Amino acid sequence: MDPHALLLFLGVDVLLVCTPGPDWLYIVARGLGQGRRAALTAVTGVCAGYAVHTLLSAAGLAAALRAVPALLPALRLAGAGYLTLLAVGMLLALRRGGTGRAVTAAGPQPARTVLRQSLLTALLNPKGLLLYLSLVPQFVAPDAALPVGAQVAALGAVNVLCCAAVYSAVALGAARLGGRIGSTPRAARRLSAVSAVLLLAVAGVTAAA
């Protein structure tokens, strides 16, 4: 495909990825409440979700969503509901973690659980789909030597790499901040509660998108 179009897409995509949004809030919530490993695992899951979006879009999902507009709002509400369930689960874990004057934080989740939850969060994020519905087609040339599906896959791969780089920096920053201000059990418990509230905020943003 045209290198100039690819570079232009890269510039626009970097700006979009660097703009704080639901992905940022989700990864920050993981970093603050569960540390660096969970935050980076969340980044891996989110990027894997967008890689799936890329493959599906290259296979024609974006065109199908245009043909059935009702699918996108349904997906948006499903994503908001899933994030709400995650937040409620974190709050219940905090409640079970101690009673009375106990101040222990919720225990860390296994990496496999964080990866699965993050993958589903990305798959149900309408912002990722909107990227393929609105932005990617503007950089696809139907008359180019490279097939349309391959062009979509190349642009999607650029987006996944941008997300991996930017979100990893966000994850490390959030984990470092969480480690500094959550060094005591009481502070760690409060950070876990803040993480749950952030997830609820992501659910609200997703539902209103």
Automatic annotation (TrEMBL):
Q: How does it sit in the membrane?
A: Multi-pass membrane protein
Q: Does the keyword Secreted apply?
A: no
InterPro entries hit by this protein: LeuE-type
Going by the UniProt record, its keywords in alphabetical order are: Cell membrane, Membrane, Transmembrane, Transmembrane helix
Primary localisation category: membrane
- As recorded in UniProt, coiled-coil segments are none
Give yes or no: UniProt keyword Transmembrane helix: yes
Q: Where are the transmembrane segments?
A: 6-27, 39-65, 71-94, 119-140, 152-175, 187-208
Q: Where does this polypeptide localize?
A: Cell membrane
Name the UniProt record assigns to this protein: LysE family translocator
Q: Name the source organism.
A: Kitasatospora saccharophila
